[in-house]
Specification:
heterodimer, A: about 475 residues, mainly alpha, two-stranded antiparallel sheet, 14 helices, about 65% helix, B: about 325 residues, 2 strands, transmembrane (chain B), transmembrane helix (chain B)
Chain lengths: ~475, ~325
């Protein structure tokens, strides 16, 4: 099968496909888990049935995403062994332990309490149920924590040394708390949260726009907007910190992110490229629009750079990434989305402050609601773009500066990897279509506001709980 | 320090065996129920079978993920070598487990329940077969060089010995699935699975006996180990005990008791596991690479032991708690709302 690329290229394509696709589902479940905790606490505190129905309605979307997340997560772990056996052997002492921690600390916690969270409303008392919901959300976020530790170590491997390509750990905590770790964990944490907020907000806006259960969805809309006021700006700042650490630790990635071919020495200013057509063969940009002298301001908030920004030409072709256009544009797409979401949040917050989001008036905010619906998928695009920058930009290394991707792959025949890649393409296309179909149906059916409330809610208070849905407008209920 | 070099890999061998055992019994009954659902008449009965697993399958499957992570961290060479040698069965298992997972979600939402019922059943069967082939080929020996790197071919895993292991594992899963259903259902459905339990008890026994007989004859490495180690008498006792357990199991099935068949089956699985463990030990890639050769650095093993070892009782506790919360018979075909 001569027409096939090398086995390691196919393994890389397979890993990229499975990772980018897998990411779409836990991104929502980790963020939405926190939202479910919030509405369940509000339910227990206020006994307002709306919050209970919110918990039930959103958990339908939650479990759909969770199922796909589990189904697509298993290939991620096993691929390290099947397709990246030399990598597994070289780094297992540290990397394998971290995956083991993720499974035992995070995965199991989430899986062990999910059943109770979904089906246990009548079987356990309300506080145990809340505890189960908290554990599910906590488990999901612990997963983010461990996976980002593992990936950050691949970006900035510290805490030991490589002897003949094998990593020997000297200090586990130094390896865990490697230079990239803190900002990467936080950047991803806020990415999951922001994506989920805009998905929940977008779906709520759709109901408001359709005039269906406006009061009910005005509630969720305001909860997520309240959170977005904090999250959207913080995420931009986390993005800045992440770019700054690339500047300090990964010069080849920074050069590719900026499509910069020539080096800027320390003490000088540089232009920031806004649009470009990078040409890898000619080692230059065929076309470019720049913002003069802006690079220093972006990286360090001052016009002169304190460290040099090395150009791609400063590195031998085999020591730098080659998909410069992909890295360059993924980076810009992510930034554009981050700023767009923050702007949308700011306009929405202003309208809220002006009292435009009361249950009666919110239906009039048609353009704003449309903007929120438009924004629902943007978080996913930004997150996947960010991961493309992070991992394609790391090439040609699997472990930056230490293990080359070409040396990390198993020697599986190309046609075998090609077959499994084809299998993943087929399966994942079907999964995407089917999930969108069922997700759309859950949304078009809407919340079930006639569900009986769990009988045991009375346990937590001497006052009788409201058994009937409150018919008053939302603003009047407290 | 030297004792530590031996002790730590042994501890991790034991932990891995524990995770694998928990996976095989817990997801074993999930997969067994899945295989059995292919033979159930009518989508309502199939729905009942799936409902009996709806809140536990995910946690059960997680023991496999856990075992993968622990093998990766504790014996990195073995993780890479075994998984890349078994590329096709492992990927087949991964695909099948993915399809099984989504069948649960999609069935709940779909009007065409029959489609997802079938997907669930077929995926369970494929996953079970793939696991059997993988287990069988690990036992029959993976070709490696002195450093433990795989040097065999892509299709090495496909031979009559791994086929025998695969078929036997399917029988075992059907057996534990049947006894689980005896525990969780009532009426007609329960009667059916008293019958399937009896049949699969016999077929499992036949498969297990064939494996027991052929192992010392055809596996030179294991044969030498068996007779040199002085464990031969112990290995003679295990099949006898197994036959005894099968007898007790059949008697409890005839007496229509609800709980004891499942318990006898668990003991049968435990016994098989002890037997397998004793044969394989101290190898992680039988009979080429020992756990001492494949182990990560002692500091890694200690580091992992602190975190994971501390969590094992906690994980067991909340998993058991979940079973307690959802104890009792399955009543309907819908999960919740």
């Amino acid at each position: 099968m001569d027409f096939l690329p090398d086995s390691y290229v196919l393994s890389r394509m397979q890993f990229a496909l499975t990772a980018l696709f897998h990411m779409l589902w836990p991104v929502l479940t980790t963020g939405m888990g926190i939202y479910l905790v919030v509405v369940e606490i509000l339910w227990l505190k206020t006994k307002n049935p709306d919050y209970y129905y919110h918990a039930r309605f959103w958990s339908k979307l939650y479990v759909l995403n969770f199922g796909i997340g589990v189904a697509t997560g298993i290939p991620m772990e096993f691929q390290f062994g099947t397709n990246w056996a030399p990598f597994s052997e070289a780094t297992g002492d540290f990397f394998g332990s971290i995956l083991g921690f993720e499974a035992s600390m995070a995965f199991m916690l989430e899986a062990g309490f999910l059943g109770i969270m979904l089906f246990g409303w009548e079987r356990v008392n309300p506080f145990i149920h809340l505890f189960a919901t908290v554990m599910v959300a906590f488990g999901a976020n612990l997963s983010t924590f461990w996976i980002l530790i593992a990936n950050s170590w691949m970006q900035t491997p510290t805490g030991g040394e490589f002897i003949d390509g094998h990593f020997f750990v000297r200090d586990y905590f130094q390896a865990m708390f490697n230079p990239f770790m803190r900002n990467s964990v936080l950047h991803m944490f806020f990415a999951t949260l922001e994506t989920s907020l805009f998905v929940i907000g977008g779906i709520s806006a759709w109901y408001v726009l359709k005039g269906r259960n406006e009061a009910f969805f005005a509630r969720s809309f305001k909860i997520v907007l309240g959170c977005a006021i904090a999250v959207a700006p913080i995420q931009i700042y986390m993005g800045h910190l992440s770019a700054e650490q690339v500047y300090h630790y990964q010069p080849t990635k920074l050069a590719a992110m900026e499509a910069r071919w020539e080096t800027i020495p320390a003490g000088e200013g540089g232009d920031w490229s806004l649009l470009a057509i990078p040409n890898d063969k000619a080692e230059r940009n065929d076309f470019e629009i720049v913002v003069p002298q802006a690079l220093g301001l972006i990286l360090e908030f001052k016009t002169k750079l304190t460290e040099p920004v090395q150009g791609l030409k400063a590195f031998a072709p085999e020591d730098r990434p080659h998909q410069v256009g992909l890295i360059y544009y993924s980076f810009r797409v992510m930034i554009a989305i981050g700023f767009f979401l923050a702007a949308l949040m700011a306009v929405s917050a202003l309208q809220w402050w002006r009292g435009k989001f009361s249950a009666e008036a919110i239906g009039e905010q048609k353009w704003l609601m449309r903007a929120w619906i438009f924004s629902a998928p943007l978080g996913y695009i930004a997150t996947d773009s960010g991961w493309i920058v992070r991992c394609v930009g790391r090439q040609p290394w699997t472990v930056y500066g230490q293990i080359r991707t070409i040396d990390a792959a198993s020697h599986v025949p190309a046609e075998v990897v090609f077959s499994s890649l084809l299998g993943f393409v087929t399966l994942y296309s079907l999964l995407l279509v089917t999930t969108l179909y069922f997700g759309t149906r859950i949304i078009s059916q809407g919340p079930n506001l006639t569900l009986p409330l769990p009988g045991n809610i009375d346990l937590i208070s001497t006052e009788p709980a409201q058994k009937q849905p409150d018919k008053r407008p939302v603003e009047a209920q407290q | 320090m030297e004792t530590l070099d031996y002790f730590l890999p042994q501890v991790w061998f034991f932990i891995l065996a524990l995770f694998l055992f928990l996976y095989v019994i817990l997801d074993g009954f999930d997969l067994g129920v899945g295989i059995l659902s292919l033979t159930a008449d009518g989508d309502e009965k199939r729905g009942m079978l799936m409902t009996s697993l709806s809140n536990v399958w995910d946690a059960n499957e997680t023991w496999l993920v856990l075992m993968g992570g622990a093998l990766f961290g504790a014996f990195p060479v073995a993780y890479g070598t075994i998984l890349s040698a078994l590329y096709i069965p492992i990927l087949a298992m991964v695909f099948a487990l993915s399809i099984r997972a989504v069948s649960f979600e999609f069935r709940e939402l779909s009007q065409r329940k029959w489609f997802w019922n079938n997907a669930f059943g077929v995926a369970s069967l494929v996953a079970a077969l793939a696991q059997g082939f993988a287990l069988g080929s690990v036992l029959s020996g993976i070709q490696v060089d002195d450093a433990g790197h795989f040097i065999g071919g892509t299709w090495d895993w496909l031979n009559w010995r791994s086929l025998l292991a695969a078929l036997t594992l399917v029988q075992g899963y059907v057996l534990i699935g049947s006894t689980y259903l005896v525990l969780k259902t009532e009426g007609e459905l329960q009667d059916t699975h008293y019958r399937t339990a009896k049949i699969s008890a016999i077929t499992t026994l036949i498969g297990a006996l064939l494996i027991t007989i052929t192992t010392p004859i055809f596996y030179q490495g294991l044969r030498e180990k068996l007779f040199d180690s002085g464990l031969a008498t112990l290995f003679a006792i295990i099949p006898l005990l197994a036959v005894l357990l099968i007898g007790l199991l059949l008697r409890s099935l005839s007496a229509k008791s609800e709980n004891t068949p499942f318990i006898w089956t668990l003991l049968l699985f435990l016994l098989s596991f002890i037997g397998l463990g004793l044969i394989v030990f101290p190898y992680i890639i039988p009979t080429k690479i020992t756990i001492y050769q494949a182990a990560a650095a002692p500091s890694s093993l200690v580091f992992m032991l602190i975190f994971v070892g501390f969590l094992i009782p906690i994980m067991l506790f909340y998993n058991i708690y979940q079973y307690v919360v959802f104890r009792g018979k399955v009543s309907g075909i819908e999960y919740g709302e």
